[in-house]
Amino acid sequence: MRSNMAFLLGLWVLVLSGCVTAGQNFRSDDLSWIVVNKTSQGEIQRVLGEPFRVGVDSGSRTWTYGYYRYRLFGETHTKDLVIEFNKEGKVSSYTFNTSFPEEKADWKYRRAR
């Protein structure tokens, strides 16, 4: 009974706040330190910590760093950094996407390297 009451109370607090976050925020203003065929998995982990998700894409290992802020009222904002590694454990490609307004404005006209 008490655990049901605690669950309902927690759910009510979430509904009232209208905000849920998942993942861990990460610095994304400068990703130039990630160099294809040079940056290792160890370097990525030292800078960004444990990935939010791990997986495989076409046989290559992938790590995803994500931060997701969902709102019941208002805009939801998300950002993802997906890093693909080659067999030697070096970055073979990466993709960054964001819907956070301040980051979108910063990245909108930035040249890819």
Give a structural overview.
It is a single chain. With 113 residues, the chain is an alpha+beta fold. It has a single domain, classed as Beta-lactamase Inhibitory Protein, Chain:B, domain 1. Helices cover 27% and strands 35% of the residues. Strands 1, 2, 3, 4 and 5 form a 5-stranded antiparallel beta sheet that branches. Strand 4 and strand 5 (91-98) form a beta hairpin.
Describe the structure using short key phrases.
3 helices; 5-stranded antiparallel β-sheet; Beta-lactamase Inhibitory Protein, Chain:B, domain 1; alpha+beta; 113 residues
Radius of gyration: 18 Å
Characterize the main sheet: 5 strands, antiparallel
Whole-number tally of structural domains:
1
Written as H for each helix and E for each strand, in order along the chain, the element string is HEHEEEEH
Describe how the helices and strands are arranged.
Elements: H1 2-17, E1 19-23, H2 41-48, E2 53-57, E3 60-71, E4 77-85, E5 91-98, H3 101-107
Antiparallel strand pairs: 1-3, 2-3, 3-4, 4-5
